């Protein structure tokens, strides 16, 4: 009887088994699982976190010969609300949006924030990183140094 009163749907979830015994990693996995279930109940959110700590489905990282391109769907922000930093080999993306106003029926306040950090691969030219925000998508171009760019090797027949 209770099944007819409360909407319930079973979802297939990937099992993320941690065998290293690291209590911090286990705690993060448990928190990520709780967060995912909570987001499913309320209908989603800005990000779709993975239990492995990887990029969310609303973020992508492309790798070509000369650069990495990171794209993140982050609607509702203005370019000046982003704070993009590189410290050592850690890239940090942060944004915060605050808005207050009055309408004929009363006042309102909106708030949104985003924070994520990534460990960069070796050989990124930090001083050449380019960040642009357009139509709700933050796009970062992370150029590789010459020594880290893939070199093509010709294969000859014997």
Automatic annotation (TrEMBL):
<dbReference type="InterPro" id="IPR008978">
    <property type="entry name" value="HSP20-like_chaperone"/>
</dbReference>
<feature type="domain" description="SHSP">
    <location>
        <begin position="50"/>
        <end position="158"/>
    </location>
</feature>
<comment type="similarity">
    <text>Belongs to the small heat shock protein (HSP20) family.</text>
</comment>
<dbReference type="InterPro" id="IPR031107">
    <property type="entry name" value="Small_HSP"/>
</dbReference>
<protein>
    <submittedName>
        <fullName>Spore protein SP21</fullName>
    </submittedName>
</protein>
<dbReference type="InterPro" id="IPR002068">
    <property type="entry name" value="A-crystallin/Hsp20_dom"/>
</dbReference>
<dbReference type="Pfam" id="PF00011">
    <property type="entry name" value="HSP20"/>
</dbReference>
